[in-house]
Amino acid sequence: MDQLSQLTNRPLSSLSIPPSTLSALLRAGYETVQDLDTSNAEQLANDLSIPLPSSQAIFSQRKTQTRGAPLTQSASAVASSSAASAPRIATKCSPLDKLLGGGLPRRHVLELSGPPGTPKGAITIGIVKSFLKSNPDEEVLIMDTQNMITASALRRIIPQDAARRVSHHVLHTLPELVVFSQTLPSIAAASRPKLGLLVLSSLHFPLQASKKLTIAAKNTVLENLKQMLVQIASRGVTVVVTSQMATKLLAADGSPATFDTGARAVMVPQLGPAYLPSAISFRVLICPQARDSGVFRLLSEPSKPKQGVSSLKEEPYTIPKRRMLPISES
């Protein structure tokens, strides 16, 4: 792929598109700036049922953005620059902050995955407290699917003067998750004060609990989640997702396998990467090596959406006695 192609392979959210138009583009199958090359202003206006001037404005932005950007800059460099320049939210977990380059960049997505017993919930609460302290004019929405973050626990942990800016909701079923993903962008647009942080706790659970879910239906749900994340990130919302692990069987050559053909098993995040917009997402795996210690492993980041196993970044953590959050061994 040449440098110009890499540059234009950016998410549509990098353009200044009205949220309603962005949503229509995503529903029509457009994901990147480069996807616009398969259409023209007149055809896009017809496909999306939008005024022709609105369609022409999209293509005008696309041409200006491509013409004005340095051709020596790759798409991964653009994503890396965006993450590096964005204001950051301290996670209050020093090894994780170090792994993320100083904290979680605003308008980005952090997926935290790990087996039961790892401090996903404690880290999430640390991020919420940090966000509330640093952003007194913004709200936090916590959507819990498995009762991992209870309202009573939040009342004990969140300072009383900040608690009014935290909304806690519970959903357990797949239909509830589908409705939530479809309505959240409009909720975020109307929220006053502004919604700034979204927590999706145990996002895997509604899909895992739906026993009759077909592969096609699951892919549709994941695509809807991806579109929702793109839309709310474009509105300035930062997202933290927690998820459990699943066992994946591999053949000797590393290809997917079954119980009959598998040579080894590895633990991977339950949902996989399909629902995450790679240009704005960090995927971190919590790998315990003892009861109170382990490593954080960076599976992917905006500048490197796909990494080889040997190049994955890691940071060790230790959970001291009487402390909830992991800290560096130093």
Protein architecture, described:
By secondary structure, the chain is an alpha/beta fold. It folds into 2 domains: 3-73, Orthogonal Bundle (DNA polymerase, domain 1); 80-318, P-loop containing nucleotide triphosphate hydrolases (Rossmann fold). The protein is 38% helix and 22% strand. The strands form 3 sheets. The chain has an 8-stranded mixed β-sheet with strand order 5-4-6-7-3-10-11-12, with helices on both faces. The chain has a two-stranded antiparallel sheet with strand order 1-2. Strands 8-9 form a two-stranded antiparallel sheet. A hairpin with a 2-residue loop joins strand 10 (281-290) and strand 11 (293-300). Helix 10 packs parallel to helix 12 (215-234). The chain is globular. It is found in: Nucleus.
Features:
330 residues; alpha/beta; DNA polymerase, domain 1; Rossmann fold; 8-stranded mixed sheet; two-stranded antiparallel ribbon; 12 helices; 12 strands; disordered N terminus
Number of strands: 12
Average pLDDT figure: 81
In CATH terms, what is the architecture of the largest domain?
3-Layer(aba) Sandwich
Fourth CATH level, the homologous superfamily of the largest domain: P-loop containing nucleotide triphosphate hydrolases
Give the CATH class of the largest domain.
Answer: Alpha Beta
Give, in spatial order, the strands making up the sheet with the most strands: 5-4-6-7-3-10-11-12
Secondary-structure-based class equals: alpha/beta
Question: Percent range for helical residues?
Answer: 25-40%
Figure out the total of helices. 12
Return residue spans where pLDDT drops below 50 for at least 5 consecutive residues.
Answer: 1-8, 68-79
Strand content: 15-25%
Spatial shape: globular
Report the span from N to C terminus: 43 Å
Instruction: Give the count of structural domains.
Output: 2
Provide the CATH topology of the largest domain: Rossmann fold
* Biggest pleated-sheet summary: 8 strands, mixed
Using only C-alpha atoms, the radius of gyration works out to 20 Å
Helix-strand pattern: HHHHHEHEEHEHHEHEHHEEEEEE
Subcellular location: Nucleus
Protein name: P-loop containing nucleoside triphosphate hydrolase protein
Main location: nucleus
GO molecular function, one term: crossover junction DNA endonuclease activity
